[in-house]
Amino acid sequence: MAATSHPLGTMTAIQVLREGGNAIDAALAASATLCVVEPVATGIGGDCFAIVAEPDGTLHGLNASGRASMSTDADAVRARGIAAIPEFDALAVTVPGALAGWEALSTRFGTMGFNRLFADAIRYGEEGFAVHSRVAADWQRVEKDLAADPGARLHYLKDGNAPKAGQRMRQAALAGVLRKVARGGPKAFYEGEIAAEIAATVRAGGGFMEEADLAACEIDWVEPIGTTHGGQRLNEIPPNGQGITALIMLNLLEVLDAKRLRRDSAERWHMWIEAGRLAYAARDAFVSDPASMDMPVETLLSRDFAETLAAQFDPERRNDSLVMPKPPGADTTYLTVVDRDRRAVSFINSLYHGMGSRIVTSKSGVTLHNRGACFTLEQGHPNELGPGKRPLHTIIPAMATSDKGATLSFGVMGGAYQPMGHAHAFTDIVVGGMDPQAAADQPRLFWDAEGILRAETGISTEVRDGLEARGHAVQPAEVPHGGAQLIAIDHDSGFLLGGSDPRKDGHAAGW
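RE: above sequence
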């Protein structure tokens, strides 16, 4: 079974499974397809993370997030009068780690070569594909910025305009890069003319990037971290990823005994929002490249830390002393695949914001992510911009496990929303007994950059009024929050049960 954010991605994954490929093969093929047909949210110029669950339940974590250039100089940036890394700027471009991650997954677990896995992506890039409705809306949202960049204007606009739903688009340059990588491996991307163009493009925009930075790109295999809630364990990638935020939040909700409250009550929503704000504040204070973290992960996941946070919760009032979490990025692609052997992969690939930095290489058509915007320029902060460092990272795959093995492979796209989305999906399914589709369909609430709670359709007037009475500002959501893809594994029956978020264009399918 496969669940992705785009029908063509799901179809690609299912076809690879039908041909005898395993979950990792199918996930990589689907991700390559999504880079072509959902280019606002993902691309080979971004990063990826994954959790692989073997049939016996053994978990393997992949951190394929790129680092800042070794030439990076935070003092020089501050000397320009810059107080925060601009989101849509060459300064926000770090080394793209995605292709290095794809190679690592394929080498360790895959059975098919990139020639086969990239075939659909290359075909859609060369022959064209119909733009789906959510993709079109996201594309049109960034049209003005794309028009301002020569490479983006050339490769991602048609007659100066973003495509409309149903319009046919081609990505011939990107297909050409994928052909080179299929033949020569990621070395064709990280060395040679493509790498030279990436480095030159970043430097021309005032950022930091050398060809040597790209050639030195490496991934890390990591041990997933987790916490137990409702009788199952939620597993996440450790920092520099923000997955720990979901775990801190679950520990806090355990201390507050959130399960006693009715799911659709204002009292419960207030508790969840405040627990989220406390967990995200801890994220912003402590989470960074693990080599720079002052606070041990074990401390952040301890009962004592959860109780310290719980002491700051007021069931009747919003905590106005909390600094608002960093502004959320919004665009990512998440997918999950489970194969016939019940090997599962939870996989996420992203450019961070829509079209990343909004900078595209003119010849190769590679969209460069803006992950460096997650760094801070605050001197002495663990997440301060620095040479060779990884920034705090928003993209997080998740895997729930029990003593029987993996029980739920899932993720929720949507920048900063992701930890909140993980906590909701996990508890709705594990504690609340919902099926994956029902969990994905639930209405959502989340804050915007100004701290206003944005309520999706389906959040009742009773809840909105109750939150406002507790000091929250509540307004309708202008865009949906996140987008979940989920596959539940029932070890007793052998059934797989998938769900795909209606906020995206995708679907879950099996064969």
